[in-house]
Amino acid sequence: MLALELAILSDQGGRSYNEDACGHWQSERRLCCVLADGAGGHGGGDVASRLAVQDLLTTFVDHPTADGAALAELVRQTNRHLLASRQPGPTADMHTTVVCLVIDATEHAAHWAHAGDSRLYWWRDGQLQRRTRDHSLVQSLVDARLLDEADMTRHPQRNELLSALGMSAADLLVSAESAPADVEPGDAFLLCTDGYWEYLDDAFIASALTAADTPHAWLASLAAQVERATQTKPGHDNFSALAVWVSAAPAEQ
User: Fold this and answer.
1) Could you read off the pLDDT of 123-154 as tens digits, one per residue?
2) What is the pTM assigned to this prediction?
3) For the structural domain made of 2-122+162-237, what CATH number should be given?
4) pLDDT level of residue 237 (50, 70, 90 thresholds)
């Protein structure tokens, strides 16, 4: 059995309100974490992100998943619910990214799914094991070797998404791992919005992880870097993150 320690941070940044949302559900065996970054303006984005988090968590409780494919289907179901929730006015064109992580503490396994450019990072011994690939124009340019990854955050179309909840079922792209990942004590997971990762390279995230003694301290260190980087950028984006640290349960330590 694994022990799981969780921390959450969400900040409105330089915006007048926060369109990010994050939450989790945990039983003795399973942890389900969801993070979303809404878009749509004038209230639509925050409605979309909250709906995505609440709907995914509620659905997961009733239908726990054991692999990425099943979790991706729950994401698609949440998209259907979001589309059905649109009303004339602020929510008429609401969209949201979403990234969802499930850890089975009994099976020592994790799986995840995402749509958009909110990310999941999986770390072990200070080394990046896996990172989700953004559903964005700039990621497609990097994949096609037309843009260096280091230049993603400076590209003028860096915020253009190729997939997000709120798109039609035919156009929605949801990515998931083909098989559950084997999780070990000492592993760390980070879910975050683009307002967070845009100012953090992998080396800084790793060094902050090594220096931190709790997941809360890790997120605080990363958030401090975001705040330093945005001091001269009024109106900068909301930034949110959720961290999970894995350790052995007391009986296994």
Assistant:
1) 999 899 999 999 988 888 988 888 887 778 77
2) 0.94
3) 3.60.40.10
4) confident
Closest C-alpha among 121, 145, 144 to residue 131? 121
* Number of Cβ within a 10 Å radius of residue 160: 12
What SS3 state is found at 253?
coil
Residues in the chain: 253
List the Cα angle 53/231/139 in 5-degree steps. Answer: 50
Strand order of the sheet with strand 119-124? 2-11, 239-248, 188-192, 119-124, 127-131
Phi, psi of 168 (to 5 degrees): -65, 155
Mean pLDDT across the stretch 221-230? Answer: 94
Tokens for 33? Answer: 């974490």
Which regions of 20-151 does DSSP assign to beta strands (E)? 20-26, 30-39, 95-96, 98-104, 109-115, 119-124, 127-131
CA distance linking residue 117 with residue 131, whole number of Å: 11
- Return d(Cα 176, Cα 73) in angstroms, integer: 10
